[in-house]
Amino acid sequence: xxxxxxxxxxxxxxxxxxxxxxxxxxxxxxxxxxxxxxxxxxxxxxxxxxxxxxxxxxxxxxxxxxxxxxxxxxxxxxxxxxxxxxxxxxxxxxxxxxxxxxxxxxxxxxxxxxxxxxxxxxxxxxxxxxxxxxxxxxxxxxxxxxxxxxxxxxxxxxxxxxxxxxxxxxxxxxxxxxxxxxxxxxxxxxxxxxxxxxxxxxxxxxxxxxxxxxxx
Length: 216
Description:
Number of helices: 8
Structural class: alpha/beta
Distance between the termini: 37 Å
Shape: globular
Radius of gyration: 16 Å
Mean pLDDT: 88
């Protein structure tokens, strides 16, 4: 596996400084637009008493908003430890530290160590991982009710933006992947889910796939 796809590559981009910037923005403005779309998608379907697993949850802002809206408990998985200090501080400020478990593992390699939850979220994570079927398949298997994702849509402008970005990011040994949206959804469906929401935005596409007869 190339260095851009190891924790070393991720730490260069998802650094402690990056976490601090994101936390500062969240304290001032709340959720970013894409995370807000995911929040509204889930909140409209009811959250009371449900559990959540977010892979690549970053500083945990989406989890905290969902907990405030009725979610019971959340598990956040990160591949590097660089966000943990900032995330822990945010949880203490919000009084939610006892309702979130944070783990630093490679989800696709340690999926068997993680329990299934009602809701699984992959927010701008699929594009950071080279082996999409492994990631989305494992996430789908852990979703008792619904898997919600955001990922770049495939259009000429997203290809241009990502292509230029990868030239810049190559120095940091990091790469963004434009996995085909239809393949992402097909992978979830191969694991027993049904696509019930698919909304392309200008750059980020948001989708929900539900377990048959057990959706939210």
